[in-house]
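My current task is to audit a protein record that another person submitted. What it holds is a sequence and that sequence's fold in token form. Thanks in advance; the entry in question is below.
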Amino acid sequence: PYDIHCNSFITPTPPPTYAQAMGTTEMETSPDTVLELRVTTLWGHSRQPAYCFICRSMVFTQVKHRLSRFTHMSAITLCFLGCWPCCLLPYCFSYFKTTYHYCP
């Protein structure tokens, strides 16, 4: 663009950098920072080794299966689909129940 009053060209302002546009800032870390890493364990339907923070030892978990909404919904679905003789099967298999793991 040309400015009539100054008889010179006006240079446009440069576009912002990626960091300015995204609003990111650089974070400084101190060397004495302690990072605690917690790993989420995917618990299955059977016993498995785990670290007990109360006992402070490796143990095999004790497993208890409880009825859940999924158990009841599976039974109702089988009944509505016409498989009423099979509607009790979800109550017999641990796959359809909620699994709880305990320290022995």
In short: The two ends are 79 Å apart (CA to CA).
